[in-house]
Amino acid sequence: MRSAKRRRRKARPRLRVDPVPLLWVAVALNVVAGVALSPLTAATRVRVVGAPAADEVRIRAELQSLRGLPWARTSPTAVSGRLGALPDARSATFQSNPFGRGLVRFDLRRPAALVAGRPVLVLDAEGQLYATRRTVPEGLRTLSLAPGALEATYTVTGTLETRRLAQLAADLAANLPNLAGNLEVDGRGVVSLRSEQGGLIVFGSTDDLPHKVSRLRAVLGQRPGLLGTVRRLDLTAPDNPVVAPR
User: Which helix H or strand E contains 49, and what residues bound it?
Assistant: First the structure.
């Protein structure tokens, strides 16, 4: 009885695998790999959008290094990182396809203030100091930094509060566009604005600067010519401004 069962088990047909489809898959993968690794897929035409004109030579040199490099061996992240490291670039993105086409798109920094005494050093809208290679926009507010001022504007957590200075410059431009003058930060981190009318506006620390700008706008709205008649307008305590006459 047992021998009959064994004979029946041995009589079962075996599963046969047709090798032809597997061979076609292997061939297809080989073709795809060959095409992807072929120099013919290298980026030969790359469109550049929003590039800083002053860095044209450096950008061209970076893109020239892609010639002959197969598409599969091109690292968009690495290329984007190198192009995004240009001083005036906030970021850069590089994309390419196997047909030799590519695209580079730059997002440039937005200047907020020019650092006095350093003609190429600019504070951008995000509070980053950088050496610009572009022409500085006309009317850009100047920021004077006393020796040790940057160290004085560090918070307890160690974060440089230049972002707040950049926001202050933007708030002044938006709320008081006719208020001409340069921003100053002394060695203790005290922020002020020396108006062209002669009066010194003292904001104090970088804390609560939007409220201080709001109070300044309210005060000057009530007394438009105030800065031409006072020596100092202290907004360190914005709800209790102190005026020092000349």
Answer: strand 45-49
Query: Tell me: the pLDDT tens digits for 151-176?
Result: 655 544 334 578 899 999 999 999 99
Q: Please work out, in degrees rounded to the nearest 5, the angle formed at the alpha carbon of residue 100 by the alpha carbons of 94 and 104.
A: 20
- Long-range CB contacts (< 8 A, 24+ apart) of 239-246? 239/215, 241/215, 246/198
91 membership: H or E segment, kind and range: strand 89-96
C-alpha distances out from residue 97 to 50, 64, 67, Å: 20, 16, 13
Cα angle 192, 195, 198 (rounded to 5 degrees) comes to 115
**DSSP summary character for residue 205:** S
Residue in the structure block whose two tokens are 């850069």: 92
Domains of the chain (ranges plus CATH)? 42-108 (3.10.20), 111-245 (3.40.50)
What does the alpha-carbon distance between residue 200 and residue 243 come to, in Å, rounded to a whole number? 10
Which of 91, 71, 72, 75 has its CA nearest to residue 83? 91
Contact (CB, 8 A) for 85 and 131? no
Write down the pLDDT at residue 157: 37
Q: pTM for this structure?
A: 0.73
Taking the CA atoms of 52, 56, 58 and 62 in sequence, report the sign of the dihedral they define. Answer: positive
